[in-house]
Specification:
homodimer; 202 residues; alpha/beta; Rossmann fold; Arc Repressor Mutant, subunit A; six-stranded parallel sheet; 11 helices; 6 strands; 14% strand
Amino acid sequence: MTKVLVLHSVGLLRSALTALLRSEESFDVAASGWCTAQQHVESLRPDVCVVDLDCPGTATMLEGGPAGGGAALGRHIGLLVLASAARPGALRKAFEARALGYVDKDASAGRLVRAIRKVAEGERFVDESLAFGFLEASRMPLTARELSVLARAAEGESIAEIARGLHLSNGTVRNYMASATRKVGARNRIDAIRITQGAGWV
Amino acid sequence: MTKVLVLHSVGLLRSALTALLRSEESFDVAASGWCTAQQHVESLRPDVCVVDLDCPGTATMLEGGPAGGGAALGRHIGLLVLASAARPGALRKAFEARALGYVDKDASAGRLVRAIRKVAEGERFVDESLAFGFLEASRMPLTARELSVLARAAEGESIAEIARGLHLSNGTVRNYMASATRKVGARNRIDAIRITQGAGWV
């Protein structure tokens, strides 16, 4: 039997993904939200954790949030993410958290089942439709500083607040904002935030 | 038998919701993405359409998009939406599209099944946990003009572009932006966009 843990913050989608995987007789499926993820991981010791990259809370978890960090998860358990090529930033976060499996959210249920089997054996599984997303992720033009300025601006912080928060001058924050806007081909700051958020970078 | 059609733009989640509902023996379940929704509605004549309010494409459909418009759908078929109290704007769009069923996305699978039965009988079903969202929706402070200015700004349009698009002067657009920002209690334009997008208004 392969022990599968579905982690998702939305109750109904968690139940639905569980129902889908329970139709596989060789899978022993459990599910949890993010708050109790760590406990479930410790008590169940799943072979594979299935995570939706677009689900609220996933990015925080992958970057080392409540569940002890995605990298911690990825080191001990086969991490499998449901992803989309349109969000290269999210793909990169999953990669940095050592995910083994990358399944396109538009794939068939059969592909997800095959991917789970692969990851349970410690092998990598990457949907070829996600390849373009990985390519985009490798060409990410923004620096970490530009990204953190954009992320704070996206939360509604003013230039002065961002400057205080990152120990920079107002002028430097404006420069980062301008270079980020130019690099992603945006028309203005709001457009730069829209583009980077859409791609899963901030 | 109750004929249920699951409409969702994300393949795997569509399959998962279908698997969940197929465990009910009295349901005859089909699924479709948005592109082929109209054909499926016409050929299957479902009793109930299940729609995820947060799924890309849903808002467009509810406001009269490709599938002939949500109101058209709601008039002929029992429309049931999977919703969240945190997005009152999306709830209002569903209400205007004459949805009969409103199920909290964090509800149990059993509640969704009960809601589908109700809606199939032509009755209304509203999860009580969504009540606060409906209250928020009824207190929406922004005018249609302020919302359309914000929506265009969120797409990255400049003040001048918005002014041209809506046949207004630049000063009037600035005034709408300022009043919208003040009314939603935002710190600046970007914050106003963040707040209204998060609530499902734009």
